[in-house]
Amino acid sequence: MHSFGYRNGTLHCESVDLDALAEEHGTPLYVYSKGTIIDHYRRLAAAMNEVDCHICYATKANSNIAVLNLLAKEGAGFDIVSGGELFRVEKAGGDPGKCTFAGVGKTRPEIEYALEKGIYCFNAESEAEIAFISEVAGAMGKVAPIALRVNPNVDAKTHKYISTGKSENKFGIDFEVIREAYARAAALPNIQIKGLQMHIGSQLTSVDPFSEAVEKVAPVVEELKAEYGIEFFSIGGGIGIVYENSLASGDISWWNEHEESPLTVEEYAARIVPTLKKLGLKIILEPGRYMVGNAGVMITEVLYEKRGSAKVFKVVDAGMNDLIRPALYEGHHDIVPLKEDNSGDTEAVDIVGPVCESGDFFAQDRELPIVQSGEKLALLSAGAYGFVMASNYNSRPFPAEILVDDEVAHVIRPRQTIEELLTTEVIPQ
Ligand SMILES: *Cc1c(COP(=O)(O)O)cnc(C)c1O
Predict the structure, then answer these.
(1) Which residues line ligand 1 (CB under 6 A)?
(2) Which of 128, 144, 291, 354 gives 20 to 30 Å between its CA and that of 316?
(3) Ligand 1, atom nearest to 290 Cα
(4) What ranges do the domains of the chain cover?
(5) Class for domain 34-289, per CATH?
(6) Over the stretch 211-266, which tens digit does the pLDDT of each residue have?
């Protein structure tokens, strides 16, 4: 389910009129639906209820502390990739004891901080890292809980920038040598072996690669359970979402009856649970995009129209610094006007931002309803890897973020001011 659709001629998020909201708070503006996030969490948990499933939300997908707080209250743990994310989780009321720490480049201060806070597990990505974690833990008189991330060499069939489970990717330890890596880790003095982790990529639109990876790695998990008494198997995140035609009917109720993903969580669970169940272990999931992607939109205003000899450009007030997915990995976002257009008239346009880069576009040669300067557009499915990847490039302040709860719109981050942009800069005297 997601809660964006037209009501009385304007796009709504739950019961909030987005046109009025954008008038009040300005653009560019991120808006998230609380109901959608909670619904997705509960649906995934319900789909996996035949195993001892623990959801560690991938914080990096959308790390606003209001979003983290919603999930913490639902009982979620968190998959973090930096000390900064651990700090956020704590501020949001999350439990460090339910945090797993991923990433190929953990630093000493980050490892120390995580050990002090008592995180659930470090998911280590190389033998050098495990040795370093052991050393840092030893110096603190502690034992570090670790899992190794295995790279199962499975093709996730997703964009090359978000594929992580092939041998040529920088992530994880090669499947062929994982047993030896565990043996060496077990011999280190300040390491406690807790589990095995994998994550093969993001935005997977088929269940096949997940099931292939689970089938391939499950026998190793059984061996590790017998040998080291591991307590969990984390199968990572990666569940893909619908980016195209996601507002097909334009009616919120339509969404309550249809699937939000090209691969449904029920289908996902049905394929992998039988194998996972036999392991008799705690199963950790690390969904990011699935939880928040369809729960957010970015609203932008059309500033100018430019009719060139080859193209029609609509210049909008949001740029690649606000939402980089199209520029970074050809990410698609459906674009719809906030005022419903039933005329059926469309034209092929490029939607471009104000940033001085040719990569600064949101759509190219796309048939869209005809919109005039001053009208507003919503880029759909912008809740994941949207605001979190925003930058101040071109000295553009960060957009505001709003969390909608039925008819109430909470500002969860006010728009950054230009003064705030400069507060930490210094001219040497
Ligand atoms: C990014 C990431 C995730 C989340 O991926 P999604 O595609 O957003 O579900 C999970 N685990 C790890 C280790 C990651 O790096």
Answers:
(1) 58, 60-61, 79, 102, 199, 202-203, 236-239, 286-290, 384
(2) 291
(3) 9
(4) 4-29+294-422, 34-289
(5) alpha beta
(6) 999 999 999 999 999 999 999 999 999 999 988 766 644 444 444 444 445 789 99
